[in-house]
Amino acid sequence: MEEQSKPVAYFDSVSVSVHRGETVRLVCATHGHPAANNFTWYKHEQVLPSQSSDVLTWIATGSETESVYKCKAANSVGVASTKFIVNVFGSRF
């Protein structure tokens, strides 16, 4: 029987730079036993309502979408979190 452990949350990198109008897709990768089954996303330390999966997707519309985003993952044993920086630049053309 596998020992239970709280999740470990991570992103493949710590930041991304995108142009206005591009799609941003963050995946909150986790491991632990049991698997994380509850995800909460934050922008500027404020909860993003109705975002409860391990993937957060949106269109970078401008500087208002530039921020530090945080994913909090939980299982029945505990909670872990990780942060990601999104930088938004002017349009590509």
Short descriptors:
Immunoglobulin-like, 5-stranded mixed β-sheet, two-stranded antiparallel ribbon, mainly beta, single chain, 57% strand, 0% helix, 9 strands, 93 residues
Describe what you observe in this structure:
The chain has about 90 residues and is mostly beta strands. The protein has one domain: Immunoglobulins (Immunoglobulin-like), CATH 2.60.40.10. It has no helices and nine strands. The chain has a five-stranded mixed sheet with strand order 2-9-8-5-6, with no helix packed on it. The protein has a two-stranded antiparallel sheet with strand order 1-4. The protein has a two-stranded antiparallel ribbon with strand order 3-7. Strand 5 and strand 6 form a beta hairpin. The protein is elongated, with a radius of gyration of 15 Å. The model has no long low-confidence stretch (mean pLDDT about 90).
List strands and helices in order, with pairings:
Elements: E1 5-10, E2 15-19, E3 23-27, E4 29-33, E5 38-43, E6 46-47, E7 55-59, E8 67-74, E9 79-89
Parallel strand pairs: 2-9
Antiparallel strand pairs: 1-4, 3-7, 5-6, 5-8, 8-9
Count of DSSP helices? 0
- Spatial strand arrangement across the major sheet: 2-9-8-5-6
CATH class: Mainly Beta
Calculate the mean pLDDT score and round it. Answer: 90
The fraction of residues assigned to DSSP E strands is: over 45%
Count all strands and give the number: 9
User: Helix coverage percent of residues?
Assistant: under 10%
CATH homology-level superfamily: Immunoglobulins
Report the biggest beta sheet as strand number plus sense, adding barrel if it closes: 5 strands, mixed
From the alpha-carbon coordinates, what is the Rg to the nearest angstrom?
15 Å
Outline the low-pLDDT stretches.
Answer: none
Oligomer: single chain
Global geometry: elongated
Total domain units = 1
Structural class: mainly beta
Q: What name is given to the CATH topology?
A: Immunoglobulin-like
CATH-derived architecture: Sandwich
